[in-house]
Amino acid sequence: MKRLFALLLVFGGAFLALAAFGSVSQAQTFNVLYAFGAGGDGAAPWAGVTLDRSGRIYGTTAEAGHGGAGTVYMLKNYHGTWQLSALHEFLPANGDGGVPQGRVVFGPDGRLYGTTTRGGASGYWGTVYRLGPPATICGSIQCYWDEAILYSFMGGHDGAAPWFVDPVFDQNGNIYGTAQQGGATGNGVVFELSKSGNAWTESVLHSFSTSEGIQPSASVLLDPAGNIWGTTSNGINQTGYGSVFELSSSGSGWNANIVHIFQGEPDGADSVSSLTMDAAGHLYGMTSFGGQSNSGSVFELSASGGSWSYAQIYNGFSGGGGPNGPLVADAAGNLYGTSWFNGAHQLGVVFKLTPNGSGGWTYSSVHDFTGGDDGSYPYGGVTFDAQGNMYGTASGGGRYGRGVVWEITP
Prior knowledge:
Strand content: 35-45%
Oligomer: single chain
Helix content: under 10%
Shape: globular
Number of strands: 33
Largest sheet: 5 strands, mixed
Distance between the termini: 35 Å
């Protein structure tokens, strides 16, 4: 994670160009739906997008807006043209959050929920927020949604700086996530927000130690049994490459089980990917480094005799780190993801992994970004609609050089 953090600071969304190899998948149509930077609409969309039942697209930008700290936006198709509405512009100077790097997602109440890496009551350590349509009809062109800050991290035992974190809900409406810093040892936490009346209370379910892996930077996964799964991006003992963890409830607390410790090359390293579970209970994730040439890997965890077996299913990325997350599975069991390096033009790629029938997986490129109008350096995962169209973002490039929202149709 130290390597990734250094790159983010130096390049601010314009990363080094590195290459990947693999076959090109069957031709599909790539369309840019919106290019950021024409005005105060935001810039640097790090996260993927969320769709509603009407086909509207919701997402976040980590930069720009009138507060300079990012936006939440909605895209709606008007007679074939996608138009953007800013639902919220973050104003950290007023105690608001800032720099959202995760998606917004719909909660059980139909409102949007998200996290910010910075801002909040502390001024620095981030928030969990909620957005809903205004209570009264808005007659202006720009109608902002009403925001509520559910929790402001204070940078102590409660945690600090949720990075690429989408809120995850259980069946009771409680919210789960990770914060990369803070906690009992300062190495990050898994947290829960529970609601009582109109108030939300934060509980730290686990604080990470250097022997377990540190700096969890992605969303968590809740399995059907109520266990919590995730990854850490650094450690073990401050010198390693992170881990995959499971938290299970004991009734009076949560027990941590470290399922896999990443080993660097040729194993994985520095995972900022949340995990994906298929219908058979297998878990999939990605690492940004490690692999065949320290350029990342895709891995699988499968249950075997009461324990979990770890295997890499693809490690052929080359040129430097890049795969992030999360992976998304389609109905046929294919896996889709993005890499912010690699690709034919060394500017990022959307890729597909297909089971080959003999226990292995075949890699193919869905789209190689050129750095022109199509964008560059995709970081967030992909999202499918009911028709099989794929949507996502690129954090840079585009007509104005500040990122795009794209669509790939079969």
